Amino acid sequence: MDDSAERYLEELRRNLRPLPEDERSEAVREIESHIAEGQADGRPTAAVLAGLGDARTLARAYVADYHLRVPRDGAIGSVSRFVLSSVFVSGTGLLSLFVVPLLALITSLAGLLAIATPVLGVLRTFGVPGIVMGDSGGWQVPTLWSFPASLALGAAFAVLAWAGYKLLRAYLRLVLAGYRKLLPFHSVPRGREHNDR
Amino acid sequence: MEVTLVRADEWSSQIRRGTLELCVLAMIASKPRYGYDLVSALERWELLATTEGTLYPLLRRLQREGKVEASWQESAAGPPRKYYRLTPHGRDLLERMAADWTELSEAVRETLLREEEAKSHG
Questions:
Q1: Sign of CA dihedral A36, B72, B35, B38
Q2: How far apart are CA B67 and CA B88, in angstroms?
Q3: pTM of the full structure
Q4: Theoretical Cys-Cys bridge with A110: which of A136, A161, B21, B87, CB 3.0 to 4.6 Å?
Q5: Whether the Cβ atoms of residue A194 and residue B17 lie closer than 8 Å to each other
């Protein structure tokens, strides 16, 4: 395996990201075997790679074929599919009504506090009145420690905001993947055409 | 004229896509074969000639759909090869597809022939 082949496989691997890990490595392994086979056959690496076409286009063909599902036929299949779709759509719809605004609120609020807290800490250090840092028992953070303490608190808020954002993204991705699975596209996406000679 | 040519190209490309699956299934019916071997064999037919970029994703899909099964095998001199063979489901499918294809091509051939004759007699 020389440099150009390595680069090709790396690019292929990167562009296969939408696929599950085992699909990815299986595809890369087979293409790697194809390249080695061509080389053993006495063909120049460049010619073998040219035959495979652009790595991104090849990856797209894999991804498109992965989503290309066999349409299920038969009355029972379509009825159960319809029921399943309805349950999924209404179920996640109802859940999203709570989950999405809640996570969005937590994320934006925590994000705001992550920025505001250190600012307040700085102000308190310089003696701006009306900023309370302490517990309900009356204990107060020493003025000199205002900034480090506020920085730590701000960092905690930042972590919360980040976690909320990640969670929201993961949730949306999960729901969208569900929709995609229930409504497979049977048409061949554009871009596969380029693979035909 | 340009438009007609593009249309004809597209038509060929669609026919090819549909028949490639049948050919691949047929080619591994009698003995297991690996990707590189299939590509080389398909290169012989200009109309069928497919790029590796089309064949490998197709093989992967056929495997996922349970029409073919595959296993990696070490080769004496060279890289390990992924050999494909038909599953019982794939074999059934191939039989049906082959029968359909024979009937279809016969119908097309007869239609073209009849029209040709009518033209020369009329």
A1: positive
A2: 8
A3: 0.56
A4: A161
A5: no
What's the pLDDT tens digit per position in A117-148? 999 999 988 888 888 888 777 788 888 888 88
Judge whether B53 and A57 are in contact, CB under 8 Å: yes
* Packing angle of the helix pair A45-52, A3-15 (nearest 10 deg): 20
Pick A30's closest partner by Cβ from B16, B49, B56: B56
The answer to whether the beta carbons of residues B68 and B25 sit under 8 Å apart is: yes
The β-bridge relationship of strands B68-73 and B33-34 is unpaired
**Separation between Cα atoms, residue A80 and residue B53, nearest integer Å:** 36
Q: Which of residues 49-108 of B touch A (CB under 8 A)?
A: 49-54, 56-61, 64-65, 77-82
Q: What percent of chain B has pLDDT over 90?
A: 55
Q: Give residue-wise pLDDT tens across range A174-194.
A: 888 888 777 654 444 444 444
What pLDDT does residue B49 have? 64
Token digits of residue A112: 């705001």
Q: Where do the H-state alpha helices sit in chain A?
A: 3-15, 21-40, 45-52, 55-67, 75-125, 146-182
